[in-house]
Amino acid sequence: MGFLITILVVAAAAHYYLWRRLVRPVTRPGSRARRVAAWALAALPVPLLLTRLGERFGTGVEHVLAWPGYLWLAVMFYLVVFSLVMEIPRALAVLAVRQRERASGLASADAPPVAALAAPGASTAGSPAEIIGEERPDLTAGVEGAGGIDRRMFISRAATAIVGTGALATVGYGMATALGDPVIERVPIRLPRLDPRMSGLRIAVVSDIHLGPLTGRGHTERIVRMINGLQADVVTIVGDLVDGTVAELGPLAVPLKDLESRYGSYFVTGNHEYFTSGGPQQWIDELGSLGVRSLRNERVEIRHAGAVLDLAGVNDLGGTGIGDGPDFGKALAGRDAARPVVLLAHQPVQVATAAGHGVDLQLSGHTHGGQMAPFNAIVKLQQPVVSGLAQFPRSGGGETQLYVTRGAGFWGPPVRVGAPPEITLVELYT
Predict the structure, then answer these.
(1) Where does the chain cross the membrane (predicted)?
(2) Which of 119, 252, 271, 392 has its CA 20 to 30 A from that of 345?
């Protein structure tokens, strides 16, 4: 509920800002256009609110309202971003108009008032000053007709047009990216402790598939088809598979039974599995029936060409509050320290603990690569890596490497800007 309240507060502030920047300056007080825009701005967030409530309480309304609700969230976000970008150009343009008005005012100080230009006895009703009320007329442009606008309103309307066009174009591009095929990232990684006989071992990594009200079975089928095309030795799903219960989304996960790999498919929980009503166990059982093994603070041995690698997995931090959090000791205790270990952990921030346990490579997701720039800058405040490969000092010497995949799906708006969806093929070398 706290998260929902935060969304409401932020959304209210964003809508007020948009009113101040995109509606009020471009419409006249009391005009029909202003009233319509005000009501529209008030109504547009309602589908999102109802969608979030439906997702939380399982009303079913989210399946109808999710698309308009989340699309408006994306449009609103980029309207705010482009409005902020336009603040300085807008301010400079208004300043230039003011300076011109002052200069014009000084030059025409001895000129008769505008009203005196009318014929003697003529009525001044319907004059620009009366029509636009509190808005200042452009005295430098002469007397305007009833439909005229002053330079300041022209600047505001031009800025609004730029903001609106930029936001809609960005969201359109982001939708095409999010709903298109994930990018295949081939990432060679050297592990000094890897037995040379295992050199070339291929691990397919996918995370943040986010099966939910905006995705269909085709979303899963495409991901499975692309992973199978990689001919991986191991397939790993690094959390945030779903945004709902097995009863709601079970049919969308069925294609996972067709995953192909030499040594099996593995899953670890993400924070969204703990948001699901009933918790993650229902999905752990469902995935087991589909041939995907969940690593619950445990590890398995991957034997290849006579050599052995440990593949471990820890629960997400989201399970800590219910006694189902990560347990690195349980997952890694008692293993042969001479052989390498690859760890599946949903959140990159878990790498600090992984390094303390001598992990060679951690595979994570969670960040979506920021999903919608400039969110990537905000993600950096919470996670050590937004996407890609990084190194961290390891306990006892050496380095723990961390690879963060951008995820194959999306959360919230079906929009990705600057962070295309990704399926990763990690190739291990000595």
Answers:
(1) 37-53, 65-86
(2) 252
